[in-house]
Amino acid sequence: MNLIIFGPPGSGKGTYASRLEPKLNIAKISTGDMLREAVKQQTAIGKKVEKFLAKGRLVPDEIAEALIKEKLGELRGKGFILDGFPRTVEQARFLEKIIKIDAIINLIIPDELLIQKISARRSCSCGEVYNIANVNDTINGMEYRLAPVLPKKEGVCDKCGSSLFQRNDDKPEVIRKRLDVYKKQSQPVIDFFRGRIPFVNIHVNSTPDVVTERILSELTKLNR
Ligand code: AMP
Questions:
Q1: Which of 83, 97, 138, 221 would staple 30 via disulfide (CB 3.0–4.6 Å)?
Q2: CA distance 86 to 101
Q3: Given a cut of 70, is residue 224 above it in pLDDT?
């Protein structure tokens, strides 16, 4: 199964992609993780994209597209879930030309909760994500009960034992820019795909366990 997981920064794309990866036996492909790793390793691409990431801006389409093309080639036909790609209509057109996508999981969450959730995110270099926020709110008649996702030992990743950190672009001054970039450049991707591939619209208003089950059940319905 070839999937895209889409949504604003802080909606939980990385969390749900990580959870769906073993359940559906597909590979999680995160352009954000790949770019951060390139910056860390100071590769030629890493040096080129460093400033874009630090400022919360998108890296040039050609760079993200080349990363995805290479990664999809390595998968040799195994299913995947794309986290963070495509992020512009140009990237969506590119993807459509190179591979068939079975569905897009569209995560929906009100703006009011995003800044709160992003600033509470704690990440691991292995791709695991935790969140120390405890959201208990009713917005436009919908209840949001987002319990914290905590590691067993404070500050340490359950999966690999490394120390958790706050991403530089998860700090308040960069978050606003990323949300702005999302609205202007990434949201139009939704309109591009409407009517072209099946949509699974998911309100992120409960714990990751509950929301993951909801995604799986909606995906099963698509196959009927
Ligand atoms: P993420 O981890 O998905 O939030 O991505 C972190 C940062 O990596 C973004 O703010 C962008 O600077 C960059 N990035 C990730 N994916 C893409 C993409 N598909 N196109 C352009 N820039 C990207």
A1: 83
A2: 12
A3: no
| Entry field: residues in the chain | 224
**Atom of ligand 1 at shortest range from CA of 55:** 12
The pick from 5, 13, 16, 31 for probing ligand 1's pocket by mutation, whose C-beta has the most ligand atoms within 8 angstroms, reads 31
Q: How far is CA 41 from CA 60, 137, 184, in A?
A: 19, 41, 30
84 CA → ligand 1 middle, Å: 6
User: Bridge-partner residues for 174, per DSSP?
Assistant: none
66-92 pLDDT, tens digit per residue, is: 999 999 999 988 999 999 999 999 999
Q: pLDDT per residue over 125-145, tens digit each?
A: 888 899 999 999 999 999 999
How far is it, in rounded angstroms, from Cα 206 to Cα 201? 14
Residues 6+ apart with CB under 8 A from 107: 5, 6, 7, 8, 11, 12, 13, 16, 202, 204
Give the position, in ligand 1's atom list, of the atom nearest the Cα of 91. Answer: 19
224 CA from centroid of ligand 1 (Å): 34
